[in-house]
Amino acid sequence: HSCSLSASFQHPSGFMNMNDFAIGSDILDIGSRKCDLRRRNQIAPADHPPFLEIPNELPVPPVKNPAEFVRNNFASACGNADAKQDVKFAKGTTTLAFKFNDGIIVSVDSRSTMGAYIASGTVKKVIEINPFLLGTMAGGAADCSFWERNLGTQCRLYELRNGRRISVASAAQLLANTMASYRGYGLSMGTMITGWDETGPQLYYVDDDGTRLKGRYFSVGSGSTYAYGVLDTHYRPDLTVEEAIDLGKRAIYHATHRDAYSGGINNLYHVTADGWKFIHAIDVNDMHYEFQEEKRNTMQE
Q1: Residue 178 above 70 pLDDT?
Q2: In terms of Cα–Cα distance, which of 43, 84, 76, 275 is closest to 182?
Q3: Do residues 208 and 183 lie in contact, with contact meaning Cβ atoms separated by under 8 Å?
């Protein structure tokens, strides 16, 4: 049976006013206000640093030496290497980008893996920082996604303060500075920052050590050696747009074919003086049959 509360509720002392039954705000907000107050007034032990409560800041473990704790428990090792950490990172991906006379091609796969387990086949590994700037993801998905979006915020603030777009070199340096400040804290990032600015097309590689390299083409991830093989063989600065798109597509296909940790969808972008343009999203399985047919026709000739 349902019950209702009314102003005519009978009390031994007589009728009671409805205000006597008002529900306190501390109940209506389900304790969130009290929880916030408790956290705000919480006093950390003298030998433990408090958690950071500042926007866009990374909380640190509440131990005496956060850097040493993170290194011992979350260190990142590539390939078959082992940093003796408690949490083992098993990463896999293939991303690439190259400059040519008519702009920049950015081509990536979409597979996310946790060791031999395929966690997702539809990860968006190209982060659209602004209409003229792109970033790629390789390493820890959360690290890349968070810090490249943070970079987008920094780039927008620069534009508002200075009245012009930030250069690709400066954007890459901002990310490298951030990575350098968190060096040794277990971040895992191998990213490319690319775009078009006043100086033309630019391409930079930035990783979690704060390394920043400028180049004509880069490939990052577990399938990068296979992609480099295709790029080293077929890359030319004077490629046509169609040839460049085919090269980006072909390099990702061969990497996903040989590397079990890469696969899914090939997402490809073309960057020009007018900004980046999304070209295609093609299943690598479809590309397999396309290239197998091409290979058979070539052998028959």
Answers
A1: yes
A2: 76
A3: yes
What are the pLDDT digits (tens) for 267-277? 999 999 999 99
Q: Kindly tell me if the per-residue pLDDT of 140 is higher than 60.
A: yes
Residues 6+ apart with CB under 8 A from 41: none
The beta strand positions in the chain, using DSSP E, are 10-11, 14-15, 95-100, 103-108, 112-114, 117-120, 126-130, 133-136, 190-197, 200-207, 212-214, 217-220, 265-272, 275-283
Q: Give me the helix-helix angle, 284-300 and 241-258, nearest 10°.
A: 100
Question: Which residue pairs, CB below 8 angstroms and at least 24 apart, start in 10-16?
Answer: none
Instruction: Based on the residue annotation, tell me whether 93 is a catalytic residue of this protein.
Output: yes
* DSSP per residue, 245-277: HHHHHHHHHHHHHH-TT--SEEEEEEEETTEEE
Position 3 pLDDT exceeds 70: no
- Among 93, 113, 136, 194, the active-site one is 93
User: 96 to each of 63, 133, 157, how far by Cα in Å?
Assistant: 39, 15, 28
Q: DSSP letter at 177?
A: H
> pTM for this structure?
0.71
3-state helix, strand, coil in the chain (%, to 5): 35, 25, 40
